[in-house]
Specification:
The complex is a heterodimer of chains A (188) and B (184).
Chain A: H1 2-16, E1 25-26, E2 32-39, E3 42-48, E4 51-56, E5 66-72, E6 76-78, H2 81-87, E7 100-112, E8 115-124, E9 127-140, E10 143-153, E11 173-183
Antiparallel strand pairs in A: 1-11, 2-3, 2-11, 3-6, 4-5, 5-7, 7-8, 8-9, 9-10, 10-11
Chain B: H1 11-34, H2 41-70, H3 81-111, E1 117-118, E2 122-123, H4 132-166
Antiparallel strand pairs in B: 1-2
Classes of the chains: A mainly beta (188), B mainly alpha (184).
């Protein structure tokens, strides 16, 4: 009876009042990382189907937050089968050599109610660049949705090398959009 | 004898005819060539040029149709009734295909997830959803409509040449860019 009580208390604590430094969990089915590149003015949307996040984040203490991401580059979809077959090649993502892209936060600061700037290092195809990602949080029930968008320069990461360097064909700017659903984030 | 001397299409109709003839033949050839290319900047360029050309043909054909409906073409040269009917049917088919081929191509592009952006600056709306199965169907449709257009064009050109060179009825002069001089 005592154990039962202890377990249910723990469950309650985990479910409704997660301790400040607990790891939050990503809900992959309700999360999305998408990107849009422009080919001769034509926006072409792509998605990463597999990714994971390690998040330790308390909205009250953004300074202490640690956010890490890993994206399975091989899970990218983009337009047609022809373009997808091209993506894995050395000129583009070189998926064999660089199967993952990662992000590791270095500083998180609040910019408004439910709004944060997450600065960190983005590593794609072996190249590391600093990015600042604006994130907006929205809470509904046990879920917290973090969404935002930022722009990267594909040539900074040598994505589309060789014959594809010409930015009049494929624009240098690539818009990255994300919507990540987390559980266990304490109230804003 | 030569009734065609003063029996010509209007200069605007003649300009539309030859401009679109060149544009359609070029687009058809580019379309044939590009579809077998492996992915490369060249392929991407040709695909986009082909789409821009197709949309330009579509727009010019709309203007041409307006002109055609408001300006009476010259009377038919004398020929058997069945040939007259065949010629007119071919003209109707050509006009229908001037619109059907680019429309099917536009829809195919949209359904494949590549919206058409004319000249890289003018985004066209997608009137079909992004759907791989639908894209396959529209690709086939675009292909066969284009080949049907090619077939009607060959018949149209063949008939015109037959009239001009075998029947010697001067039919070609009605559409020739330069008015023939009376002495020739």
């Amino acid at each position: 009876m005592k154990t039962y009580f202890a377990i249910s208390t723990l469950a309650l604590a985990a479910g409704f009042a997660a301790p400040a430094c607990a790891q939050q969990k990503l809900v992959p089915a309700q999360s999305e990382i998408a990107f849009t590149s422009k080919q001769m003015g034509v926006p072409v949307d792509g998605k990463f189907k597999k990714f994971d996040a390690q998040v330790a984040f308390d909205p009250k203490k953004p300074d202490a937050a640690k956010i890490a991401f890993s994206i399975d580059i091989g899970s990218a979809t983009l337009g047609s089968p022809e373009t997808e077959a091209e993506l894995v090649k050395p000129d583009w993502f070189n998926t064999k050599l660089f199967p993952q892209a990662t992000f590791q936060s270095s500083a998180v600061k609040a910019t408004g109610p439910g709004k944060f700037d997450v600065a960190g290092k983005l590593v794609i195809k072996g190249a590391t660049h600093d990015v600042v990602v604006p994130v907006a949080l929205a809470q509904a029930g046990a879920n917290t949705t973090a969404s935002g968008a930022f722009v990267i320069k594909r040539l900074d990461f040598k994505i589309g090398d060789g014959d594809w360097k010409d930015t009049s064909m494929v624009a240098n700017d690539v818009q990255v959009k994300f919507k990540l659903t987390l559980t266990g984030v304490s109230a804003l | 004898m030569n009734a065609s001397l003063n029996n010509r299409y209007t200069p605007v109709a003649i300009a539309f005819h030859w401009l679109l003839a060149v544009a359609i033949v070029c687009s058809f050839c580019v379309g044939l060539y590009m579809s077998d290319l492996s992915m490369s900047p060249t392929r991407l360029k040709l695909f986009n040029w082909h789409k821009w050309a197709g949309m330009t043909i579509f727009a010019l054909s709309a203007l041409r149709l307006l002109w055609r409906l408001t300006h009476r073409p010259p009377a038919d040269v004398p020929m058997p009734a069945w040939q007259q009917r065949a010629a007119h049917a071919a003209h109707v088919a050509l006009y229908a295909l001037f619109f059907a081929v680019p429309l099917a191509g536009w829809a195919y592009s949209s359904s494949a997830g590549f919206p058409v952006v004319v000249y890289g600056v003018l985004p066209l709306p997608d009137f079909v959803p992004v759907d791989k199965g639908l894209a396959e169907i529209l690709k086939t449709l675009h292909h066969w409509l284009a080949f049907t257009l090619a077939l009607v064009v060959v018949a149209h050109v063949g008939a015109a040449l037959k009239h001009h060179f075998l029947d010697r009825d001067g039919l070609l002069l009605r559409m020739w860019p330069r008015k023939p001089s009376l002495t020739s």
